[in-house]
Amino acid sequence: MRKILLLAILITVASYAQIPNTKQLIVVTTKNWSTSSGILQRYEKEGKAWHKVEKAIDIKLGRNGLGWGIGLHTIPKDAKFIKKEGDGKAPAGIFELKQAFGYFPFVVGYPYEVYKSTDHCVDDVNSKFYNKIVDSTKVKVDYKSKEHMRFPKDYYKYGIVVNHNHIDEAGAKKGAGSCIFIHIKKVPTAGCTVMNEDEMKEIIKWLEVKNHPLLVQGTGEVVDGLMKEIN
Fold first, then answer.
1. Which of 117, 191, 201, 212 has the most Cβ atoms closer than 10 angstroms to its Cβ?
2. Ranges of residues in the chain whose predicted pLDDT is under 70
């Protein structure tokens, strides 16, 4: 019993230790697990207190609501909703933000990539590139399913990569969900969080690497709990 208790404590501590000392949060709150809309509020930390930045905005997310994703948080043992590939759910939890991206150069202080139509985010669970963004002209393509990072519609004209399920690292859990972004769109998605172009650009301009920005996403009750895991 002592060994089991000690292991549980170590796992909890390890989970908390992963969360960086952030000073910028993007907090998305929904009314319940099945809704496809919510509210996004930005926060900045001054001293030990969090302060709202600008007004909250209306957003859309997964067409089937939310499911616990893989990030910096601790997933409850009794969790009923778990994010899976192709389920139409956005990931709930605490996530680091990777690079911003778009179709054209955008002078900002945050890492920003200009993607081409040959840049793919791989959602084929059988590929070694699963949940990675790759330049298809520079790799041996072993996938049958992917998302083009640039295409005729403006959905990815500006966006941010959410580090759900370790998108840029080896060992993404197969089938746990892939290619999660914050980007431009007016309707519910397959799992991303979306808003209009001006709102998207404003968020990208606001981000600062030194502040370790994070995305916190969930129902009101879930967000309250997640905020307790953040320093």
1. 191
2. 1-17, 169-170, 231
